Amino acid sequence: MASTSSPVASTQPTLPSGLAVFKTMPYAFILPEIACGTWVWILVAATSVSYPLLQGWVMYVSLSSCLISLLLLISYLFGFHKNSENWKVLDSLYHGATAILYMSAAVLQANATIVSEFHHNSPLYYELNCAASLFAFITTFLYILHAFSIYYQ
Question: How far from chain centre, in Å, is Cα 45?
Fold first, then answer.
């Protein structure tokens, strides 16, 4: 009597590697997160940084998040995760925590923008601060989308 057992298909979704990272949600958000985050710190650095405590936090959050996201992207591209479930947890926790940090940075940057409106500095600094605030909120939104997309995947 021969038993015919069929192999059970894996219900666990695989993590992308290589160029499939750019085609798979939510991992496709990593590159826009890096690009928008880079714009935040470039724009803040281009201003006179009138409020070092506020904008210093914005620079710290945007630069460190950009670098860590770049490392995460590289690890996905080269397949360092080896399809481990722990990477999904790490990714979700990182993007959730970064979304919270970026929200605080975006609010502080918006405050610096509002205060810079009434200074007699060049109007260019106000416009740069406005753009930095916009990109900070866009980046926050991208990190939130990424964190919840992993969670609901």
Answer: 19
Number of structural domains (the chain) is 1
Q: If we measure between CA atoms, which residue out of 105, 114, 111 comes closest to residue 139?
A: 105
* Residue 64, token pair as written in the block: 């460190």
For 18-52, letters b (16+ CB in 10 Å) and e give eeebeebebbebbeebbebbbbbbebbeebebebe
Model pTM greater than 0.70? yes
Q: Tell me the per-residue pLDDT of 120-150, one tens digit each, with 9 for 90 and over.
A: 667 778 888 889 899 999 999 988 887 877 6
The domain containing residue 126 runs over which residues? 29-152
Q: 73, 34 in Cβ contact below 8 A?
A: yes
* Token pair 């995947």: residue: 153
List Cα–Cα distances, 29 to 25, 46, 73, in angstroms: 7, 26, 10
